[in-house]
Structure to design on (254 residues):
């Protein structure tokens, strides 16, 4: 397996949650990490906390000029690019009778299209390093949560996209995989408007604990560990790796 030491890694959505946990893990292991996100102050604070091996490039993945700056910033910081970790995501939920077309299109733009366009930009650099791409899927593709059709649909698209791009880019030496997390506390639920505070989010996630075979929700650090495996594993591509504490099994603890 490859060493993380000296790798150049671009993490979208790196200011909070799983993206931040992943950036911290890779920097601690010796990678040169570039994190991106729309909230500039938060992003820069996160980069400062991680240390000198981390660079912040504020921007919105749905804006072409910002995507160019992200890739160029990572290449400059790391002297190339070994891994593109497409972890930025938004959430939109509601019953089918209340969904708004504009918001659906915005969600697909941010969760699916932007990641595809980043792969397009990153491809020549990833070819040079025989690097990899990791997308973020979701347990929503395995369990049907009423009202979650917009988010689940984008994650279903990502998981299918993973296999197609793995087949397309394999001859170029680029591996493409996907991580499928379960219930992990991030600020995504709050930002989506589904709940008002982080405490509300924690209480919502606590309600899912009995649905996990391992009887607890996960942590960003546990997802980051699995992402590291996908980046390091030279003969692994086209995979959707489930790390969900058994939530997707459909069990109910009694």
């Amino acid at each position: 397996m490859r060493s993380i030491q000296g790798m150049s890694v671009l993490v979208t959505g790196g200011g909070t949650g799983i993206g931040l946990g992943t950036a911290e893990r890779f920097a601690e292991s010796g990678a040169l990490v570039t994190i991106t996100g729309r909230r500039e102050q938060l992003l820069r604070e996160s980069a400062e906390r991680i240390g000198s091996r981390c660079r912040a490039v504020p921007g919105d993945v749905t804006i072409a000029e910002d995507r160019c700056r992200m890739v160029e910033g990572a290449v400059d910081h790391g002297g190339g690019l070994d891994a593109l970790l497409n972890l930025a995501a938004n959430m939109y939920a509601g019953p089918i009778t209340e969904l708004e077309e504009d918001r659906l299109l915005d969600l697909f733009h941010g969760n699916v299209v932007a990641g595809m366009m980043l792969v397009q930009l990153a491809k020549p650099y990833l070819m040079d390093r025989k690097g990899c791409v990791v997308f973020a899927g979701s347990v929503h593709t395995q369990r049907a949560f009423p009202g979650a059709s917009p988010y689940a649909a984008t994650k279903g698209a990502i998981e299918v996209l993973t296999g197609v791009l793995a087949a397309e880019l394999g001859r170029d030496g680029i591996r493409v995989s996907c991580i499928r997390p379960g219930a992990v506390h991030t600020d995504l639920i709050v930002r989506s408007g589904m709940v008002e505070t982080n405490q509300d989010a924690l209480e919502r996630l606590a309600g899912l604990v009995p649905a996990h075979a391992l009887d607890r929700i996960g942590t960003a650090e546990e997802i980051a560990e699995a992402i590291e495996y996908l980046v390091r594993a030279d003969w692994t591509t086209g995979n959707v790796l489930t790390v969900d504490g058994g939530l997707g099994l459909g069990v109910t603890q009694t």
Q: What stands out?
A: The mean pLDDT is 93.
